[in-house]
Design goal:
single chain; mainly alpha; two-stranded antiparallel sheet; two-stranded antiparallel ribbon; 6 strands; binds zinc ion
Length: 226
């Protein structure tokens, strides 16, 4: 009996759109060791070879519909047809279910963002896809694409905050406000960064999320010092 445990396992899924069953590779959490996080919470792992970020998106090999565990099962009226026209009818069958290289990971997130936009997923869900695309471009030092997707993510977090659509997600209001500030800073929108940092700092006496307040204060002092 082979008892060697590999970092990978196969997750059984059902496509939310066409209902076909398929398999997607995932990474066992026991193999994942975070070294440190960037200021926008991008995880840096001790080994980039086993990167769980590569495996968050499930791509249906049959119809191309791409989603994450945060997508809702509900399709607003007309959106199924829209995805079938824009995605499935143009889909050339590809299997994203195996071990992925970074370019496949990026492609999978772009597919999920496109499907999520058409399906009108919550802004917070779409933001989470865009920020991860930016992180992946950061890993391969593609600054132009990183900036482009940080901006998309910032706009989605801003809409999420303004529409309060983050309720029931894993994101707290404070974390969203902080990310609007941090991403604004990273794309050179300093005025907006300061405005949203001050919103975080205002809550320092009422929140339990001390780490986020401290990160905001750090960035605030850094901006004021320049
Ligand atoms: Zn499908």
């Amino acid at each position: 009996m082979n008892t060697t445990l590999t970092p990978y396992y196969e997750k059984k899924l059902q496509c939310l759109l066409c209902k076909t069953n398929f398999i997607s590779t995932k990474i066992r959490s026991s193999f994942v060791k975070v070294d440190f996080y960037d200021k926008d919470f991008c995880p840096n792992y001790f080994s980039d070879e086993v990167n769980p970020l590569f495996y968050s998106v499930f791509v249906c090999p049959h119809c191309g519909f791409s989603f994450t565990e945060y997508f809702s099962k509900y399709f607003p009226p007309g959106t199924r047809e829209d995805i079938i026209n824009k995605v499935s009818n143009r889909w050339v069958s590809q299997d994203y279910g195996k071990i992925r290289k970074i370019k496949h990971a990026i492609a999978s997130y772009k597919l999920a963002a496109y499907c999520g936009e058409i399906k009108r997923e919550k802004n917070v869900t779409i933001a989470g896809l865009y920020i991860r695309i930016a992180w992946l471009y950061r890993k391969i030092n593609n600054k132009v694409q990183e900036q482009r997707f940080l901006r998309f993510a910032m706009n989605e977090y801003l809409n999420s905050y303004l529409n309060s659509d983050f309720h029931g997600s894993q994101m707290s209001e404070l974390k969203i406000i902080y990310l609007i500030a941090e991403l604004s800073y990273q794309i050179g929108e300093e005025k907006q960064a300061v405005l949203y940092l001050s919103k975080v700092i205002e809550k320092q006496n009422t929140t339990t999320e001390r780490t986020i307040v401290e990160m905001a204060l750090e960035r605030w002092h850094e901006i004021k010092a320049t």
